[in-house]
Q: What sequence folds into this?
């Protein structure tokens, strides 16, 4: 899957997207988990507010 993402980001439209990593704390165990997603630059704030 990583190869597909890299190949997609190398095209001209790849600069419109950013890989965002958010740290989330589990309410049950208290452990931290990381959620990563490739988001359009206009929707980064929406992703971080979730």
A:
């Amino acid at each position: 899957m990583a190869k597909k993402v890299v190949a997609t980001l190398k095209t001209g439209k790849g600069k419109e997207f950013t890989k965002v990593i958010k740290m989330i704390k589990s309410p049950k165990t208290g452990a931290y988990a990381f959620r990563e997603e490739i988001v359009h630059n206009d929707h980064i704030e929406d992703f971080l507010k979730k």
